[in-house]
Amino acid sequence: MTIQKTLKVKVFRFNPTIDDKPYYATYDVPFTFEKMKVIDVLRYIQEKIDHSLSFTWDCRLWNCGLCGVSVNKRPCLACITDVKNVAVNGEIVIEPLSYYPVIKDLVIDRTPEIEEMHKLGIKYIRNNPPEKIPEPMNPEQISFHRDWHLACIDCLVCSSACPAFSLDYEFLGPHLSVKLAKYLTHPKDEGDRAKQAYEGGIFRCLGCGRCDAVCPLQLEISKNTMELLKSASVEESLAPPAVRDFLENIYKFGNPWGESRAKRGKWAENMGIEGYDSKKHEFLLYVGCVGSYDPRAQQMAKAIAEVLLKVGVSFGILGSAENCDGNEVARLGEKGLFELIAEKNIQQFKKLGVKKIITLSPHAYNSMKNEYPKFRGYFEVIHYTQFLHDLIKNGKLKITKDFEAKVTYHDPCFLGRHNKVYEAPREVLKSIPSLEIVEMGRNRENSLCCGGGSGNFYTDLVGGKQSPSRIRVEEAYNTGAKILAVSCPVCLIMFEDAVKTEGLDKEMVVKDISEIIREVV
Fold this sequence. Notes:
521 residues; Ubiquitin-like (UB roll)
């Protein structure tokens, strides 16, 4: 059956030969079939309404990589993006890919990307000619190279989505990183790819996974490219001083700041929290480095602990015996150190009889849930927002007070994009009477990173006036919310700093969901 609806389509327009500045034109486009794509919308406008509209496309088979655009602030290929999946209240906004010069309307200039590739020397390098032509290669040698790097169609959607790439061209971005990794994984290439990755600012990558979320070929760029290049650089002792200090502190002291292990459990003093004992406790509450040492994050740890105690949850902590979970170590490419950390924690957990773990941080949740099983660490791992949601559903956690406030929620990268946990935190907030949730334009899978991932919370390689945290608090402020709610200690601290820097501390506060719940039970 033909669907007769009308879409309101707002399109970025700019012709440098006649326009002083960009503007937006709005068109009414009939939504005529269920699987209508964004490219169909653009072609309708160009063919039926305004012949002057410029955009690039060719194959319609997500093969040429030419039709990349931004739809409602999410980079995508127009040829494969369903209108029904991106329209909000029957409206879509189409813009050129971010961070690239605009030639006309939706057509971008790819020259800066090509020039940067030549500048870095990203090309096939052989120091010695092959002994035999054709040169024999085992198919197993090139499988990873073929499947994850040769497959790239150069659409630039990944770099347009990258919050670190938006800051400056000192970071080569996901697209050029894939090009570089193509040669790193080529069994016959002899170029110094570790040095090129380091000089290309690979450690500016935040590991947020936005490149993974938008890649039309699902190349898992953050793992198969970014972490691969970081590992190559680390193996050659090529890392910024802040990264080296971070990894050294983790190795020597078990935390990023080089603090005494004895201080790790100080936050829990005089709270009546017991050390974990498998005979007495069902759950281990794993607090992590940030929650254990940072004064602001300690308040978050206390909040969730107080809620669990009040509800009567059987849990204990490790205190000074707790170790770093290692997630940021892995994201920075130090796989050997991460393996040591993971195996040490797994051995400790097994020795103590740990079966179920509640994590404060999405970062710990990610490593323990997804990485520890690779080292025979099989535990039931749950983030605290999921646990609170279960308690509320089962009637064990009762909300007894109203909370009159307009709240917007930020999806942490390692809870949202990396682990697809979007609804549990929202359901916890929705259970609170009088609390109104308003969404930021970029939410769930399209959420913007706080800027603290891949250890940047400690190393501070990505900052400045256009840092992701400052952009994000502006987005939160523009919703009219008075509270920016988070569910991650790193996000909590990054956003509180950004709110103060932006001069919004009298207009909006940052609270963790655990702190809000503590106020209403």
